[in-house]
Design a protein that fits this description.
The chain has helices spanning about 15-25, 45-55, 85-90, 95-110, 115-125, 130-140, 145-155, 170-180, 205-220, 240, 255, 270-275, and strands at about 1-5, 25-30, 35-40, 55-60, 70-75, 160-170, 185, 190, 195-200, 230, 245-250, 260-265. It folds into two domains: about 1-65, Alpha-Beta Plaits (2-Layer Sandwich); about 65-278, Rossmann fold, CATH 3.40.50. The strands form three sheets. A six-stranded parallel β-sheet has the order 7-6-5-10-11-12, sandwiched between helices. A four-stranded antiparallel β-sheet has the order 2-3-1-4. Strand 8 and strand 9 form a beta hairpin. By secondary structure, the protein is of the alpha/beta class.
């Protein structure tokens, strides 16, 4: 296996040498400004803790597996492709962010059923003007670091992209158009006379819904599971991630990191390019 090491900072030579010694790597190759490939490496129990302590992301990768081997990348939206939880920021326009954020966090940790948590959060927004959604998009929505680099590389390789979210169509469709994403699926807020009614239109895309859309898109593209990468951060992404050959936990909750193929705890989304080679 190759051990891929990457960070947002310079990685000291001593740390690279230490990891090479731990894993009996045959050589060290620099692949990007803050990324290295340790060739012919063997897994070692202490690699994970050592990398965590030094804010380094790592992954053991088959040397024959490259980005071009994949045909579809499926992404969560809130706190994955973008840095915010849209519903929390909408709530902030209504001075309800603490109440809504608490429900969001519990749902992402898997403590509350996602669909029920969404209904409870949206109910708190009843009466809010639709213009608040545009304000969130214009003033607060930011792409996660490295998002555009990653998407650009995926396009170069002809890899399709699916944005599937328990969040809202209002934001996912704008991001799809802006970034050239191939497919997008999300939930719809009910809006009457320019105001939110506090209801979500059926059918809610929850954990099962995300997994179903991944499988549907994979089948349409006639891909095998091992040709699919899924990226997410919360418990409601786990079923989707389980349907992909490779799963990436992006700055994720512990329950997600524990079950993912790889975790990006420190680097941006362009870490995918470094992991499999651009």
């Amino acid at each position: 296996m190759n051990l891929i090491i990457q960070a947002t900072h310079d990685i000291a030579t001593a740390r690279l040498n230490h990891l090479a010694k731990l894993t009996n790597a045959s050589r060290i190759e620099q692949t990007a400004a803050h990324a290295f490939r340790l060739c012919d490496a063997k897994p070692h129990d202490t690699v994970a803790m050592y990398c965590w302590e030094h804010q380094i992301d790592y992954g053991f990768v088959d040397p024959h597996r490259h980005l071009g081997n994949f045909g579809l990348v499926v992404m969560d939206m809130d706190s994955t492709l973008i840095t915010i939880e849209c519903i929390d920021e909408i709530a902030d326009m209504y001075h309800l962010k603490p109440q809504v954020s608490a429900i969001t966090e519990a749902a992402m940790r898997g403590e509350i059923d996602f669909a029920e948590s969404l209904r409870r959060r949206v109910a708190l927004l009843e009466g809010l003007e639709e213009s608040a959604l545009q304000r969130v998009y214009d003033e607060r929505l930011q792409l996660s670091p490295g998002a555009e680099i990653m998407l650009g590389k995926l396009k170069e390789h002809g890899i399709k992209t699916l944005l599937v979210s328990g969040g809202f169509i209002y934001f996912s469709e704008r991001l799809k158009a802006r970034l050239g994403i191939d497919y997008a699926r999300a939930n719809a807020l009910e809006i009457v006379d320019g105001r939110l009614t506090g209801k979500v239109l059926p059918h809610i895309i929850d954990a099962e819904g995300k997994a179903e859309w991944l499988v549907h898109t994979r089948n349409v593209l006639e891909l095998r599971p091992e040709q699919v990468i899924a990226m997410g951060d919360g418990a409601n992404d786990l079923k989707m991630m389980a349907k992909a050959g490779v799963s990436i936990a992006y700055r994720a909750k512990p329950i997600v990191r524990a079950q993912a193929s790889y975790a990006f705890n420190f680097v941006g989304l362009d870490g995918l390019v470094n992991l499999f080679g651009g």
